[in-house]
Structures are given as structure tokens and as C-alpha cells.
Amino acid sequence: MTRDGSGQARPLLLKGARIVDGRGVRHERADVLVSGEQIAAIEPNLEVDGAVVWPVGGRTLTPGLMNAHAHICLDPGPDPERILRHEVPAETAIRAASRLQQTLAAGVTTIRDVGGAAGVDIALASLVERREIAGPRMLAAGRVITMTGGHGYWFGVEADGPDAVRHAVRGQIKAGATTIKVMATGGMMTPGQAAGAPQLTVDEMAVAVDEAHKAGRIVAAHAESAAGARNAVLAGVDSVEHGHGIDEEVVSLMLERGTALVPTILSDRAIVEAAPEAGIPDFVVEKCRALAPSLERTLRLAIERGVPIAAGNDGGAPLVPIGDIVGELELYVVHGMTAQEALAAATTATAALFGMSQLGLLEVGYVADLLVVDGDPLADIGSLRGPRAVIARGVPVHADHLESPPG
Ligand SMILES: [Zn+2]
Question: N or C: which end of the chain has fewer CB within 10 A?
Fold first, then answer.
């Protein structure tokens, strides 16, 4: 849908695209009609009176990408924690809103924020939903739920024991959270704790899952060791985030229970490869260097064994913008996925985790979250980077370069 000079809504007709999604090449050449928020038709040689026509012959149309692990309140510079601790909520909100625009322009049309501050993520999610600001649709966790002194305690809610965790989850849902995040282990970004040491117990996380599921919310658990991931899976969480050191036993449990993995391997890579003068705090670099190889092993094992993998890059962590989900997908390919599987990880697999059945495929009736890209993402997943055009909920977000021939 676009609007003409008089503000009249007009359907959008994309002519002659190659149509590709996580199920492969759907059409070698077809026209796609976008009407309202939806894909209204996909057929060869469509003619529609009054439609705005975009010639996209020689280019590829894919679904908008999804990022299942992001932090819109964090500045993706070398030391996000220091900035968040020193800014006031108004600054956090304004900076986060501009990150949302950048994320959308990069082709990411849905994100799950798994830890915000001062209610900013929740407020932005509803502003986007109401179309008051531009951005990807958002699931927002609000404040993370962690044990006293646990990972992220300085911007989360500290809760000890099942009753306190139940209270904390209810509090975030009351505040408007549309997903819940719990900390199953320590983390790299919190000083003075071992990243993989178990934190919330199985009983505590099981209560969080119970409360969240009653309210129709999914639960993500941060876990950087096999022991922590095992606790989270036993508690019934919907996804394990990171998952360093996950072994055969945990993989079997995840397969049994349908638990998804959100690897965020780009974040480890960015920290490990950063120059010493980049300014990432030493304790973060040290913990990450020690743990990064164990996440690579997890990813290879999970791919091999068919664990559902939803793409998330931990955008907002040092040197990782939320919009760079393609960098994450490239690493999935390095570690054993096909490009088509990687595309599915950032579309259908994430939509399945979120329970958003109208997203992730290029089919009639699906929400029109679309990218126009040059090249063939099934041959090179990197060709999803820097899309020519982005359409979100039926509305073109940017379409700067469509007049030039496919590059
Ligand atoms: Zn994170």
C-alpha cells in the first residue's frame, strides 16, 4: 500500500520479481500485489487499476528478516553498559527510536527485544504498532528477570524464589511486556561473575514460564553453559539464548521439547575479533575469548541434529547493530547451514517461535513485510545485506535505488 499526493491509499504492484523465501524459489518470475498490510496476489502478468507499479525484474523479493535477540536500548559501541548507565531515559528513548529506523532500513522488519530499560522498549513497541514511529514490529521483554546480583541485575528485576519470580513476571506483563526474559546463568557483560555459572533455578524459571504462558507470552532464557541451558529447557522455556557448551544431552532435551536455540554468534565473533584499542572492557573480552569456541561447537551440533534455530544477533552488544542479522546468518552458513536454511532461520523459524503465523513467507494472505534485493540469497546469503527496498506492513520504507539496473 502506498499513498498518492491526495493521501489516498493505493495498492502496490511489484512487477517481474524472482520470489524466494525460506522454502526456496517460489516463483522464477511473478508479480506481487500488496494491498493494505497484506500480500493480496502473486501471479504472472498482473494488471491492477490504480496500483503504484514498481518494476523489480532481475531482482529478488524475500520476506523481511527477523531478529530474535536484540536490545534496542543499548548503544552498539564498544561499551553499551557504560552509556546506558550514564544516560537519562529520554536519551535512551530518542537514541533507541533512531536505531529502530536504521534497523528497518537494513531489512529487519521484526525484532524481539530481550532486555530494555526504563520501559523504553515497551513504549517503542506500541508506538511502532500504532504507526506513530517507523520501526520493525517488536516483541518487548521490558526488564530482564534475574537473581539478586545476577546477570543484568543493574537494569533488570532481581527476584529470588518462585514467589518473587512470579511477582516479577506479573510486574513486567503489567508494564506491557509482550515476551519474558530470564537469566539461567551469569553473563559476559556483567563484571565479577562467571558467565556460565547457573543462576535462576529450574523451579524459579518454571514459575516464570507458567506465568508467561498463561498470558500468552513466550520465554527466552539467557544461558552460557550446558548446565544453565539444561535448567532452562527443563523449566520449559521457549528458547535458549546463546547456549555455549550445549552438549548431546541438552540437544536431545531440546528436540524432545521443541525448544529453539537463538545462537547470537555474531556478538561473540565481534568481541573476539575487535582490536584491543576498540575500547571493549577487558573483562568482557577475556570471558568471550574463553567461551566463544564452545558456542561454535553448540551451533554445529544444533545444526547437525536439527534443533530449531531462530536467528538472533544480540544487537546492542558491543559492535553489533540490530540491523546486521545477515552477519549472523553468514556464520550459520559457515557452521553448516545451507543459505536456504539460514534464510528460514531469520523468517519462518523465528515466526514459529514467536507464534506469528502470518509472517515469514511470501504467500497470499501473509503480511507484506518484503525486501527487494540484488543477487541470489540462496547462493549467497550475504546478498540480503543492504536491500534495495524495504516494505513493512504493506508500506514502502525506503526504495532509493530501484531506478538503477540490478547490480
Ligand atoms: Zn542479549
Answer: C
Q: Domain spans of the chain?
A: 2-64+361-398, 65-354
In the reported structure, the alpha carbon of residue 295 is separated from the centroid of ligand 1 by a whole-number distance in angstroms of: 14
Distance (Å) from CA 67 to ligand 1 centroid: 11
State in Å: Cα 114 to ligand 1 middle. Answer: 6
CATH fold of 2-64+361-398 reads: Urease, subunit C; domain 1 (2.30.40)
Closest by CA to 240, choosing from 65, 114, 76, is 114
Residue corresponding to grid cell 536491500: 387
Quick one: pLDDT band at residue 7, thresholds 50, 70, 90?
low
For residue 70, the CA-to-ligand 1 centroid distance in Å is: 6
Q: What number of other Cβ atoms are within 10 A of residue 37's Cβ? A: 16
35 CA from centroid of ligand 1 (Å): 36
Fold of 65-354: TIM Barrel (3.20.20)
Share of residues in the chain with pLDDT > 90 (%): 92
- pLDDT tens digits, one per residue of 336-360: 999 999 999 999 999 999 999 999 9
**Per-residue cell: 35:** 494491498
Per-residue pLDDT reduced to its tens digit, 91-110: 999 999 999 999 999 999 99
Instruction: Give the distance (Å) from ligand 1 centre to CA of residue 71.
Output: 6
How far is ligand 1, taken at its centre, from the CA of residue 75, in Å? 12
